Amino acid sequence: MAEHTTILKRVTGSISQRPVLAGTEKKRPWAAYENLILHVHPRKVPLEALRFTRTWGLGGMCVVLFLLLAMSGMLLLFVYEPFPEKAYRSVMTIQNQVMFGQLVRNIHYWSANFLIVIAFLHLLRVYFTGAFHAVRQFNWVIGIILFTGILFSNFTGYLLPWDQLAYWAVTISTGMAEYIPLAGSSIQAMLQGGDETGSATLLMFFTLHATVLPASLLLLMFYHFWRVRKAGGVAIPTASEAGELEKPPMAATLPNLVLREGVVALILIAVIMTVSVIFDAPLGEMANPGLSPNPAKAPWYFMGIQELLLHFHPVFAVFLIPITFFLLVIMVPYLRYDVARSGTWFFSKAGKKAGIAATITAVILVPSAIILNEVIIDFPGWFPTLPPVISDGLFPTGLMVCAIVTFCWVIKKRTASVNNETAQALFTLILVSFVLLTITGVWFRGEGMGLAWPFGH
Ligand code: HEM
To answer: How far is CA 9 from CA 16, 51, 203, 285, 442, in A?
Structure first.
């Protein structure tokens, strides 16, 4: 018992003893909800799983944001009209004539953007704790589908206000699909529901955004949770690795886990409310298909791809590179690893060092490559007789692949003893590079998509 208490204090610090002791018949104020809650959670969870830094509450935050989106979205539906001549005016009505309309729109907007960021952080947490190894492999794939669904939900919602920002961001993004080899034009037409961004696009995006996507996300989320539960909860280091007892000490879910989830949810809701009160969701002039803004940018989460378009031939920028990256990420759990260990942050000390080295490499290489490509490198000019797909596609891609292979080789030589660390470093390098490309596209591109200082003139 004394040993149990010591571990308990060490792991969680603040857990109250009373409810932890299974079978103690004390008064339970949550009794009325116990049945409901225990449909989602098991009766007891390992103490180690309660430690905040194990999950940072990120999966739970995604749930809260999804609920906020569903509730605020339902309210917006009462006034919004999905037709080009009415959509913009209906959003103006929401903002100016409906009581708390602006606030509801802001909550919807900020929850949607936070959801992308938080789901991405959740993905990072799962990856860097190795929580994608057996028995959780397929849940990683479900997670990636969820993340894609979140991006698509955000994208379809982006068009709905029908202002200049929305119209041109969607036109730019669907335009990128045209470069996909062979099926490009058909995919673009399918995404737009016709030859151009128009009433059919708006109605289709609205239907996807308000019915198909949320319903699919909800179903997938339940499946995701069910698989977490089937896997025995979140990944924790196994007893032998942690050098602790064979059977991990457990804590009652109620109130320990549920209380912690409640606190995280309340703090998150407070943050979203505060941001929504201070910052209004953007709304530009009404869409004008004849007047494109300069620069015309895709939504921020696609800016990494738009930035790639400035450096690679479109077939590589919008198709080959993103598809390869996407497939690699989906296959993460199915690659060959020397050790399949879940629950330890960054796998090992060497893994952490390799990850830091990857981050520093990306922070140096990506901006340098962008600037070099802007001012010095000009493959199409140097090899004017070659087709652009080779001079502007194959050549820079070849350079990039050489850089990646050299990086992996150096990491393997210097830090890694098993291939887990090299794989983790490679994942970090690619991810940080993509984030840097996105940041460049969002903040460092001005008129004509030339390089510019953010907020400067
Ligand atoms: C709507 C989006 C998502 C929701 C609501 C969600 C929710 C959750 C929750 C509540 C958990 C358990 C506790 C926690 O980690 O906080 C979890 C675990 C997990 N999630 Fe997600 N998630 C989402 C997206 C993703 C994404 C994008 C990935 C990555 C590809 C992912 C992969 C996983 C995996 C593999 C686990 C098990 C981790 C473990 O056992 O430690 N999820 N998710």
So the answer is: 9, 11, 56, 57, 45
CATH number at residue 133: 1.20.810.10
Our answer on whether the CB atom of 143 is closer than 6 Å to any ligand 1 atom is yes
Question: Which residue is closest in CA terms to ligand 1's atom 26?
Answer: 143
Per-residue pLDDT reduced to its tens digit, 17-67: 444 445 445 567 777 788 888 888 999 999 999 999 999 999 999 999 999
Residue 230 maps to a domain: yes
pLDDT in tens, 100-130: 999 999 999 999 999 999 999 999 999 999 9
Query: Which atom in ligand 1 lies closest to the alpha carbon of residue 129?
Result: 41
Q: Do 316 and 393 contact (CB within 8 A), yes or no?
A: yes
DSSP state of 451: B
Summarize pLDDT for 165-201 with one digit per residue, the tens.
999 999 999 999 999 988 999 999 999 999 899 999 9
Q: Is the CB of 112 under 6 A from ligand 1?
A: no
Same domain, 196 and 330: no
Q: Which residue has the tokens 């737009």?
A: 192
> Is 289 in the same domain as 396?
no
